[in-house]
Amino acid sequence: PGRPRGVERRTIDPGLPTGNDTFELPAFHVASVCCTGPAGRSSPPALCPARSLLEARWATPDQFHLTLRFLGPVEEDLLPELTRTLAEIEAPAFELAPRGLMVLPSLTRPRVLAAAVDPVPELHALQAEIERRVVDLGFTPEDRPFLPHITLARLKQVPTAAVRSFLQRHRDFALTPFPVRAFHLYESHLHPDGARYEILHRFPLQP
């Protein structure tokens, strides 16, 4: 009782007569910075009848998000400083327009089906500022280009031909644009049915 969330306690035998000493490892949170659509958003209706065409684990509406920066394991002691620097960001709100489908990491190795997002200068400026600040805190710089997308499904050994056919069938896929009024610091929890996301902090954008 009273132990910080995420702290793992282990029993060790240091080879001394006392034995059974305990020590606490640092608490870690698997975190990312994301923005989401409005609450209550449903699954893309254009894809609902076609889900049976792909062997996939489809994301539920509460899992929809656009990752601005994946942070990985974050020590609990660093969370206050991380929260403070993200809260200092002054950036305008903007609109996102998901349009078109894509697969990641590539069509020859399809693992993720995602909705692409129209380029928005405010989105890219926000992501760049977040990147600068987390690197200043000691996180390793991201070496991959920012590719904004919203994950719709995790693919399970789906043949490339089936994926190509699915993309062709839904080549005109688009969702109604929606406003982004804040971004969030998330903690992810892995479960057999997919990741679950917990909002640790919300950072409003300027109107």
Q: Can you offer a commentary on this structure?
A:
The protein has helices spanning 79-87, 121-136, 160-169; strands at residues 9-12, 21-24, 28-35, 56-58, 66-75, 94-96, 98-106, 109-117, 149-155, 178-180, 182-189, 196-204. With 207 residues, the protein is α+β, with helices and mostly antiparallel strands. Strands 5-3-11-12 form a four-stranded antiparallel sheet. A four-stranded antiparallel sheet has the order 4-9-8-7, with helices on one face.
Please name the defining characteristics of this protein.
single chain, 207 residues, alpha+beta, 3 helices, 17% helix
Write the SSE topology.
Blueprint: E1 9-12, E2 21-24, E3 28-35, E4 56-58, E5 66-75, H1 79-87, E6 94-96, E7 98-106, E8 109-117, H2 121-136, E9 149-155, H3 160-169, E10 178-180, E11 182-189, E12 196-204
- Which structural class do you get from the secondary structure elements? alpha+beta
Share of helical residues: 10-25%
> In angstroms, what is the radius of gyration?
20 Å
Terminal-residue CA separation: 43 Å
General shape: globular
Average of the residue pLDDT scores: 81
Number of strands: 12
For the largest beta sheet, what order do the strands appear in spatially? Answer: 5-3-11-12
Q: Approximately how much beta-strand content do the residues carry?
A: 35-45%
Low-confidence stretches: 1-26
Question: What's the tally of helices?
Answer: 3
Biggest β-sheet strands, sense, barrel: 4 strands, antiparallel
Element pattern in H and E = EEEEEHEEEHEHEEE
